[in-house]
Amino acid sequence: xxxxxxxxxxxxxCILPALLAALATPVHALQVTGDVIDLGGTFEYRFSVVNDDxxxxxxxxxxxxxxxxxxxxxxxxxxxxxxxxxxxxxxGLIDFIADSALSFPSGVTGLFTFQSxxxxxxxxxxxxxxxLFVNEYPGTVDAQLVQAVSLPSVIALLxxxxxxxxxxxxxxxxxxxxxxxxxx
Length: 184
Fold this sequence. Notes:
Largest sheet: 5 strands, antiparallel
Oligomer: single chain
Strand content: 25-35%
Number of domains: 2
Shape: elongated
CATH topology of the largest domain: Immunoglobulin-like
Order of helices and strands: HEEEHEEEEEEHH
Strand order of the largest sheet: 4-5-3-7-8
CATH architecture of the largest domain: Sandwich
Structural class: alpha+beta
Number of helices: 4
Helix content: 25-40%
């Protein structure tokens, strides 16, 4: 016969209420993610709205800390098909506005793009989302700086690679034709 002993009778009294409270608290997996590309003096921002635990009536996502009065943002602000964007240059707010169905769908919606002279560390770090019932969902933008590949380095690597193929063909005792270099 197997018997079980109670080891910590007070532990179950603590765990059960905590578990019930965790189940009752709504958790929404809403994120604003993005890549930032340094264009040499300006930056291109590419943001997506991720609505994983879908807030079915999510209407608007606002980047709270855009630089005020920057016309480059206003001139380059773009939204994916069916969505709208707005830049309030007086308050420094960028709005991503839901599609004609009045909600952001489940999953990833993007890309919302614009350019700015402001680097990522100074602005574009927080957002506030609103649903149909004016519930707020604040958060931090998850963006990373992505380095663009410069053209001179690509040409240098391509030249180095073709040179290596030419040396390999010469060592084999055959003259290398351009077709052989590309098909090697």
